[in-house]
Each structure stands twice: as structure tokens, then as C-alpha cells.
Amino acid sequence: MVSEVEMNNILVALNEINDKLDRLLFQQDSSAHVSQEDDLNELDVMTLLSLPDHLRTTATVLFEMGTATAAQISEKTAKERAVESNYLNQLVRMGHVHKHRNGRKVFFTVQFG
């Protein structure tokens, strides 16, 4: 059985890893020659319905909020910030969501057609 302290240490380590991966992805995205907006797929109702439940929930909350951070999404979905960050990055890779950084914060926005 894992103690609560050990679980918190694991969660902190996972959050640090996630933040580092976000920074690496941002550096890779900013060095790309092709504009990300050119590659985005419209997130319409049919696409939303075709997403797995966990991604659909995240995308729906982001759609309602317009632009949000993973922490803001996690407040609405009651999931960990790291989990929502993972889901949002999946939506970015699928081309349905745009990701941009403002200082230390990473914001996500649903792209419309």
C-alpha cells in the first residue's frame, strides 16, 4: 500500500514531467515552419460525438469557456490538472485545439471552421 505522502510525491514528480514535456512541445511547435492554424481540423458536432468520452468532456468544457488553461478545465471537470493537460495535448495533436503560451501559462482554444 502506498502512503499518502508517497502518492503526493509521485503526483508532484508527474506534474514536473508534464510541465517539462509541455515546454518541449512548445519549443518544437514554435520552431515549425508551417503555421499550426493551417493544419487544424474543425471541431464540429459530429467530430465531438466521435471523440472518446474523456476527450469529449474536456473539449466540451473548453468549448464553453472559449480559452482556458488545463487548471481551469480541471476545476470544471474535477480531474487532476495533469490529466486535463494530457487530454488537451491529445486534442492539439488531433488538430482540434490550438495551444499557445503567455508567460508561464499555457492556454488552449477550440478552433472553429
Write a structural description.
With 113 residues, the chain is α+β, with helices and mostly antiparallel strands. It has 6 helices and 3 strands; from the N terminus they run H-H-H-H-E-H-H-E-E. The chain has helices at residues 4-31, 36-39, 45-50, 53-65, 70-77, 81-94; strands at 67-68, 97-102, 105-110. Helix 4 crosses helix 6 (81-94) and helix 5 (70-77) packs across helix 6 (81-94).
Compressed to H and E, one letter per element, the order equals HHHHEHHEE
Percent of sequence in beta strands: 5-15%
Through-space gap between termini: 49 Å
Regions with little confidence, pLDDT below 50 for 5+ residues: 33-40
Radius of gyration: 15 Å
What is the general shape? Answer: globular
Pairing-aware structural class of the strands and helices? alpha+beta
Strand order in space, largest sheet: 1-3-2
Helical content, roughly? 55-70%
| E-strand count | 3
- The oligomerization state is single chain
Major β-sheet profile: 3 strands, antiparallel
Rounded mean pLDDT is: 81
DSSP helical segment count: 6
